[in-house]
Amino acid sequence: MNDTESLKDYQRVRQLAIRSLFEIIEQSSEGTVIVDRDANIVWMNERYARRFGLESAAFAIGKACESVIPGSLLREVVRTGRPILLDMQDTPKDPLVVMRLPIHDDAGAVIGAIGFALFDELRSLSPMLKRYLSMQEELASTRSLLRARQAKYNFAHFIGTSAASLEVKRRARRSASADSPVLLQGETGTGKELLAQAIHASSPRAHKAFVSINSAAIPEALLEAEFFGTAPGAFTGADRKGRAGKLQIAQGGTLFLDEIGDMPLPLQSKLLRVLQEKEFEPVGSNEVIQSDVRVIAATSTNLEAAIKRGEFRADLYYRLNVLPIQVPPLRERLDDLPALSEAILEELRSQHELAPDALALLGQHTWPGNIRELRNVLERAALLSDDLMLNASDLRAAIGTFSPVPRAASAQVVEVQANETFAAARERFDRQLIEATLAQCRGKVVDAAARLGLGRSTLYKKMAALGIEESQ
Length: 472
Ligand SMILES: Nc1ncnc2c1ncn2[C@@H]1O[C@H](COP(=O)(O)OP(=O)(O)OP(=O)(O)O)[C@@H](O)[C@H]1O
Ligand SMILES: [Mg+2]
What we know:
- By secondary structure, this protein is of the alpha/beta class.
- It is 46% helix and 15% strand.
- It has 21 helices and 16 strands.
- The protein has a 5-stranded antiparallel sheet, sandwiched between helices.
- The protein is elongated, with a radius of gyration of 34 Å.
- 31% of the residues are buried.
- Residues 403-413 have low confidence and may be disordered.
- The structure holds adenosine-5'-triphosphate and magnesium ion.
């Protein structure tokens, strides 16, 4: 056989192969569709037409391919002249594996395209596709979970250029690149949670979950399961299947331990083990799980005092206190008031502005609820005032129970009782304040908490500590 002979043979083989390839594909395919150079359908088999809800293929003729097959890429094939050899096409039923080829005329110009739907029944077709589908599902659910668990705040949200604020931000930023525990200490409403989220968002763990757990908000009996999860069969009922704990959900990411000062002692020991050994066991299980979380803890109570009272483990405190950040109260960074107020009003989508006397008044208040309280005050003032320029009296009304007292004059207003300790005087003040606010809010704790700029659970705790009963 000479060269020309074999070449001739090859062409023949090729022709035969093309023909049989086409026939096999056409016969075994779930559907075939042909479009012209404008991507209008010129032919479609009946089976394919029915899949897209048409009674007959005749209804498809002359229509743009996408109007019959949503998401069709045949137009792109006609435009580029390039085939799309394997792709997935969604249909009202299951997805299909499709192949799209351009059709050339004798001169080589693209005159249309042909699409084959190769198979349906993807799930039974091959283990590979089955895996593909289950991975798709897993990816979608992981993505949505992660989206819900991603940090809402970054450092740009922490407003403030006073020296105290800049120092806090500097320390927090520096801690972001480390992996050691961070301990945020500061009064209620000073931005501890905001900072925790910002640290996570600029850490190498930013693309993983930020999971928070609040020891003050969860009943003690449930806290351990919430933390470590439960093993299958550990409980009857809803938890029979076992449930992942926050530690597991936070794997690879950051675990934010809010109000760590309220963590019960037995759990403190277990947390210490997690920090030291980097492992834990779900409740009711013997399985040891390796943990990879970065811990950020926050507290508004004084942990050193809690240690002295025997309520907090000293060893846990030292383990957490690696990168301590003291978040100062608002009254110690009054320079931030104008910027904070502006940012808050903007965030509230309010058109209101503060008159100079209003700003001056804000500077005289002591802000026990800190920035959360400032936010509440501005929101209330903006709601109550039709005038877009808020003045001092608008704010005084919004601050409500607190009559701002000029700092210099404050000593004359405080009632001094002989032999009273600081702690006793403070308790007396707290009781009077809370009782007066509750009375003004007709006993409604939720409203009183909002007015005081405190979280509801914080106010309940203070009431319990002071022996103030909730009126019915
Ligand atoms: N520097 C800041 N700039 C802008 N907004 C802030 C700032 N600090 C706090 N905030 C806002 O104040 C509110 C309270 O902040 P956050 O919840 O972080 O306080 P917290 O210290 O965790 O309080 P708590 O101890 O009561 O839980 C939030 O709405 C937060 O966005
Ligand atoms: Mg908080």
